[in-house]
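Z., the sequence and structure:
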Amino acid sequence: MVVLLVAEAHSSELADTVVAALEDHAHVVRTSTPDVGEALTDELLQSLSMIVVTADDDLEPAHRTCRALRVASSAPLALVTASPREVDEVMALAEGCDDYVHLPGSPQVLRARMLALLARGRGSGERVVDFGCLRIDPQLRTATVRGQVVALTRHEFDLAAMLVSNQRRVVSRHELLDTVWGGRQSHEHVLDVHMSRMRSKILAAGGPRLGDPVPGVGYRVGHPTCAPGESRPPGAA
């Protein structure tokens, strides 16, 4: 497995800690922010299992880097930083990061969280699942309505995939948080925001209503009824 490690200025010690946590588990390609463009070759992008950005207490440059990396790759993305501020964590998650780790902290916890993201980056081998006119392809990471791609963010896609893959039951908030965001309770509000955005995008594309809330429990998949439209197989022009 290949991990891209992007070290912002003054974060070399944090980067060293990440390298130590991933030792014996992944090949780490280490670079700095000014050189990240040259490091992101097509070959590297196709082989990436995870991206880690390290930053000191000044996170403005790191947020820019994370936004650019999220556009370039769908690999799991983590921000490891010296900032304990909640506003920085919320901003990082909203911009597409899959995890936010504040150091110093437990090396064992850091290793566990890095390995959990690595496992997500391997690819789950899940099958294509249909819900009404909506098709979810976990391998291609695409959501299509009557063959037309719906532009979902990483977290929105993961939420849609969780619901469509569990059509016969209510998916608890805890399970959604654990699978999509690593189970951290600070993401409760972020979960609701992403669910609402995902639902709106699929409805706007003529798809089914996805993600009906079950108060005090979680979300159910919804109803497979789609807006009237021409029925086409996924991928058709």
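The domain at 129-223 is CATH 1.10.10.10 (Arc Repressor Mutant, subunit A). The longest helix spans residues 188-204.

Let me know what you think.
H.
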